[in-house]
Amino acid sequence: MDRHLYRQFEAFHWLTQRLNIKGRLPPLRGWPLSPDILLELHEWIMATRPALIVEFGSGSSTLVIADALSQVGAGRLVSIEHSEHYGRQTWANLEREGLADWVDLRIGELEPWAGEHINTREDQSVSWYPVSLIEDLQDVDFVLIDGPPARTCEFARYPALPAMVDRLSPKATVWLDDAARGEEKRICESWADAFDCTFETVEMEKGLGVFTFQRDALTDTDTDTDTDTDTDASGAEAADNRSETGGNGPSDTTQ
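Below the sequence we write its predicted structure tokens.
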């Protein structure tokens, strides 16, 4: 126990050394991401510089990701949250730290999930975030999954990869928190079997499942020179637009 606590204190120390935020982080015990994962998260983003990040479940991770993007000077985070209360708290923290421009926070109550699932219990309804919140997203480089809460239903986080897999960039990375728990272990095994990816478990306080994708990017087979030039120009413009910062504020889709 002492060794585990020391590791978290040590991670928290180095995390606070890296962050530029002036206020305090939300509490990091209990349900939130533990300090060791947050430290790994900040270091990984600054090292790999993903252009588009999606997270499921806002909070301390939102601040840490936004801080890393701010230090890098590029990138965008789309944060998906089911609770208006916690979403507003997250947005207030971002505004306090001057990090709101790096985040597009989208809030929507959980709703029935119609896609594939490994929950076969007849006494439970399966819910997940509104798919409408991610319909406009493509070429996502990094996904962090820390929601919805486990009490939502059995295997509550399973829909994340089925919902996102066709929206990932060719070399995307997906992280699943709490991978040491029984339900998340089963989710990791199911994803590893169902999708063309590489999977590993990283030793963290609550476990971290890491999925990496190495797929060929789609190529344009049109040989017309003028068309290729136009396509390249529009593609560059789209990339520039995606990299532009500018938080949209907490977009609330709850009814």
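Residues 42 and 190 are 28 Å apart (CA to CA).
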